[in-house]
C-alpha cells in the first residue's frame, strides 16, 4: 500500500457513513400489541366511563324562541313591522338546576364561518388604533363606509351583524317575578378582553369623543361606546358580548355564552320552580332559515354537556379489548406451530 | 434538433456540398486562381449551457418547463391575481425556495463547464506561421493551419498528419479519452510528403464532418511548380483526432481539417440523456391521480356552492352582504374564480416540498454509496462513484443484468499460464529458474520434453511475432505495462520492463517468453533484438508485419536472421491456424488447446514457416504492391496475407489466462438468486466466453445450451436463413412452449426441477435476427428470439459489436412489461449499452475511463455489484417508495378535513387551518422525519440482505409503488382525514369546551384538527420506522416538539405584520381544555389503530421473512410472557 495522500480516498469508517448507527429495532409483535391493546382499552374505558358519567350529570335546558310556529309566544315578533318586540317564554324546573348555571344563546344555519364574513373586520381598528377609525381596511367592505362615506367603527360584517337580542330571566315566586341576575362578565376569552382588543384612548376625557367622525355599524341601534348603558367599563370594543360575538363560531350551528348565574340567591343554581324568560326580540334569522335558542347549562371539568366524547372513549376502549382478544385467539391457534422451533 | 435545422438553413452553401476544400497553411494554390478563404467554424469548444446574460431567463424557462414547477407557478399566479383564501406567500415561498436552489445548483455546474471550456480553449498551441511555430490559444486555430504537437500533448483539433519526428513516418497516439482504448495506435503521414512544410502547396479535399471515429475519406492535392499535381488518398490512418494524445513520438506537424464543434470528438459528445427511474414514473402517475382528486374536489365544491346559494336566503344572508364589486361580476366569471380559489385552497395536496424532499433524499442518499467502505478497492485506491443520484432506487428494481465479459467478469489482466510445444505441456510456474521446466499438469506424466530446438524456436516465435514495443523511458518509469492503463499494478522487480502493445495478450506472451529466458529487447531500425538463454543477443531484421485483424484472427511477421534465413512466424486463433498447417501436426496440439479453452484460457497457436528466397521475393513483391494500392487496399493485402500464411508448421500453443474477477461466481449466483437474469454480452469468441460463463456459474452442468451461432447455422449445409428459422422455432418450442406454464418461472426456476436453458448467440446470428433479409417472413424472429432469451436462465451473446450490445439492451428494455435493465462494463465498447440501459454501471477497470464517465454508477470491481444492488438498491427502493407514498398520504389527510369543512361553511373557501400551519405543515412539521426515514431506514439489516438474495424479489416490479399499495395509503389517508374532521366536529356540537363555560371558535377547531393531524402522521411514520437511530428519535420527537413550541410562539405574540391575530392564544386555550386533550388522544389512537392491527396481522410472506426474523435473532412473534398467558 502506498502511503500518503491516497489514503484520504478511503471513505471514513464512521457508523454514520457506513450506515451502522446503533439502532433500536422495534417490531410490532403480538407480545407487545396484545397487552398494549388491553391496556389502552382499559384506560379508554376508564376515561370513557368518567366522561360519560360527568356528561350525564350535566343538566342543560334548551329553549327555542325563534317563533316560527304560530303558537310560539315569539311568533308576533317575527314580522318585520314589529319593533322593540318583547316576548316571553315560560319554563318550569322540577328540581334544582345546579349552579353555576351558564346562559347561552344559540343559532343555527348561521354561517359565521363564511370566508368573506370572517375576514370582514379590521384588527387594527379593534386594537384601538385610531388611524384605522378614519381609514377602515378594505376587508371591511361593504361595511367600510356608510352611504355618506363616513367610516364605520367597528367596521365589517361581523361587527355589523352582532347578536342583538337581550334576555332577562325571572323566577316566578308566588306569582311575583323575581329577576335572576345574569352576570355578563368573564364570558369572553381573557386574552381577547385584556390584550387582543382594546379601546382607544379617551379624547378630552370623553370616551365618545374618541369615536368622533365615525358612525356606528348600519344594523346597530347604539354606537359601540354605548353598548352597555349599565356599566361604563363594558363599552367599546371591550364589551363582553361584542368580544364573544367577534370570535367566530366553527360551525353553522353554534352557541355563545351570554352570561352566568352565580350571584345572590342563585349561586347554588336555579331552584325548582317556574321561570319566565323575557326576550327583546330583534335579531332576524327566519330570512335564512335559522333558529334561535337559549341554553341553560352547567359545566364540568370537561366543559358543557357532550355525550360524544364519553361514548367514543367507551366504544374505542371496548374495540381495543375485543381486538386484543381476537388477536390472542388467532395467535394461539395459528402462530405457535410456527414459533415452536424458535422457542 | 431545432438548432441543427437552423444551421442547415443558415449555414450557407458550404454546408450543402459533400466535401470541403482546405488550403494547407491557408496559402493559395496555383491551381485555383482565386483564393477565397473558406469559412469554417473556429476551434472553440462550447459545452456550457448558459452565459451570464441568458442565465436567468433561460434557466427559469427550463425550470418551468417541468410540469410540477409550472403547476406551482400557475397556482401562485392565481393566488396573486384572484382573491383567494390563502395568501400568495403560502405557495410562493416554497416555490421560490425550490427554484432558487435549483438555479444555484445549475449555475454552479455551468460555471464548472465554463471553466473546463476555457481551459481547453485557452490551451496554448503552436501554429506554424511563415515556417516558425507561433504560440496561440487553442481556440484561435483555423482550418488549414499547420499545428505542431509534441509528445504527450493532446491534439487540439482534428489534424491530417503531415510530418512526424519518427523516421518511419509514423506516430503513435492513444485514444483513451475518445474510445477508451488505451493501447497505442499507429498513424501514418501522408505518403511522400516533402520535408519543407513551408514550401508545401497543397489542398485537401475531404468529407464534411461526421461523427464516426473510424471513418475518414479525403484526398490531398500537392502542387509542385514543375510537376503535375500529385494526388494522395487520405484515410483514417492519416487523421489525428482531437482528444487523442501523442505518444512515443517527439513531435508532429499536422494540418487542421476539422475544428471546434466540428471535430469528431465534439460530434461524438452526446449529452447524456436524462434517465428517469420507474419511481419517478410512479410519482407522475400518482400525481395525475391527485390532480384529478384536486380538480374534482374543486368542481364538487364549486357546484355545491352554487347549488346551495340557489336556495332561498343563502346566497346573500343579511349578515354577509356582498360588496359592490362582487355584485358586479358576471356569474360565470365568479364561478371560475371560485373554482380557482378552491384549487388554491386544496393545492397543498400536491406539495412542492415533495419534489424537494425527493431530490434531497436522492442527493444525500447517494453519499452512502460513495461512503461505503466495502466499495473501496485498495488496489486503485478508489471507492464507488455516483454520477447520477436520480437512479438510486432503480438499483433495487433490476430485472436484467447485461454484463461485459473482459474486464468485468474477468480481470483483463492477462497472465501467461502454460504453453504446449510440440504436444508437450509446460507451465509458467517456476519462472525464476533458468531452466525451462516441465510441470505437473494432467499431461505431465509423460515427463518428456520437446526437443531443445523446438523449445527455442517456440520461444523465438513468441519473442518475434508481435507488435510490442519496449517502453523507451528512464529506469524509474519502467515497469507497469502501458496496457494496464492508468491504474498500473504495483511494481514487480522481476519484470521491470515496460511493454507497450495494442493487446494485453501480446504483452503476456512476451512476458511469458521472458520468464522462460528469452527476452525481447526492442526494435531498433527494423532490427529486433532478443536475448536468449545464453544471454547472447540475437538480432533479426524485421521485414514485414502482417497485421492482426479480426477476420483473419492471426498475425505474422517475416524476419531475417543473422544467418540469412527468412522466417515467417504466425500466431492466431486455433480455428484460423489449424487449416494452414500440416494436418498431422494438428492432432497433438488440438487436445491441449481444447482443454485450455474449456478451462477458460485464451489460447493462441504458434506456427512458423521457412521461406525460400523465391518465396520471400514473391511475398515481398506482393505485399509492397498491395500496400501501395489506392483502391481495395484491404482486400488486396488480405489476399497476399492468405497466400503467404500457408503450409506452415505448427510449433505449439499458448494459454493465457484472463482471470475471473474476485467473487465473480458468487456475485452472479447472488444476482440470479435475486431473480435477475444475467446476460453476458462480449466481443470475445464463443469458446472463451462460454468457459467464463461456466466458471461464473451462469451455466451449470445441468444447463442445456441452445446455440444460435454461425457454427450451428452453417452446420446443416443449408442456407443460413432457413437454418435460423428452424433453430429459432425449435428453441422456442423447447424453452417457451414446453416449459410448464405455471412455472412461477422467473421467480422459482432456480429451485424447480425444470430443465434450465442457456442460450448462446453470436453477433452474426444476431444480425440475422435483428435485420432479417426482406424476403423472409421473419418479422416474428425478433419476438421469438426475445421469448427464448427470456425463458433461459442465462444468455451469452458473443462476438458482439458495441452497437449490437446496445441493440440487445434496447430490445429487452422495450419488451413487454418494460423490465428494468442494468448494464455493467468497463470498456469503451460497453458505453453504448451503459447509456442504453436503465442503469449503467461502469467498472473502474483497465480499459480507460470511458465507461466510468458515461455510467450512472461506477464501482471498482464486479463483486461490488452485489452489495450495490442487493443492499443499497433494496434499501433505497424501500426508502423512496415509502417516502413517496407517505407524502401523498400525509397531504391527503391534511387537505381532506379542509375539503370537508367546505360543506359546513357554505362552500365559501374558508380555510380550516391558519395560513402559518398551511405553509409550515410540509416545510417544517412533517418534512424532517420522513427525510430522516428515507435516508436511514433499514427494515432489513444489510447483512441479511446480502445473505438472502431472494429478499430482492420481494420488491421486484415496483412492488411498493403499484396501485395496490397506493390504494391502501389513500384509503388510510381518507379514513384518517374523516376521523380528524368528524371527531372534532362531534366535539364541537357543544363548543363550550372549557370548565369556565367559554366557547371555542373556528380557529380552535382548525388547530385541534391540525394538532391531531401532525401527531398522527408523525406517529404513523414512527410506527413504520424499524430502524431507530438517534437521528430518527431526534427528528421525530423534535418535529413534534417543534410543532408545539411553534404553536405557542405563533399564538403567544401579537404579530404586528398580521392583519388578523387569528391564532392569538388559540393554542393555549386549546391546551387548557381537558376535552380538547381527550379528543386529541382519542383521535390519534383511533387513526393509528388499523395500521397497528394490520402490522401485527400481516402474515409473513413466504419463507424468507421468517428466515429473516430468525437471522436477526429477534424474539419470535409471541413472546414468552403472552404465550404463557394464553396457554
**Helical run tally of chain B:** 40
Number of strands of chain A: 10
Largest β-sheet summary of chain B? 9 strands, mixed
Sequence stretches where pLDDT stays below 50 over 5 or more residues of chain A: 1-6, 337-343
Q: Helical element count of chain A? A: 8
Radius of gyration of chain B: 37 Å
Contiguous uncertain segments of 5+ residues of chain B = 1-16, 430-447, 473-496, 741-752, 1100-1127
**Secondary-structure content class of chain B:** alpha+beta
Arithmetic mean of pLDDT of chain A: 87
How far apart, in Å, are the first and last alpha carbons of chain A? 49 Å
Task: Report the portion of residues of chain B in β strands.
Answer: 15-25%
Describe this structure in words.
Chain A is of the alpha+beta class. In chain A, strands 1-10-4-7 form a 4-stranded antiparallel sheet. In chain A, strands 2-9-5-6 form a 4-stranded antiparallel sheet, with no helix packed on it. Chain A is built from 8 helices and 10 strands. The N terminus and C terminus of chain A are likely disordered. The N terminus and C terminus of chain B are likely disordered. Chain B has 40 helices and 33 strands. Chain B has a 9-stranded mixed sheet with strand order 14-33-32-31-15-27-30-29-28, sandwiched between helices. Chain B is 45% helix and 17% strand. The longest helix of chain B has 39 residues. At the A-B interface, helix 1, helix 2, helix 6, strand 7 and helix 8 of A face helix 9, helix 12, helix 34, helix 35 and helix 36 of B.
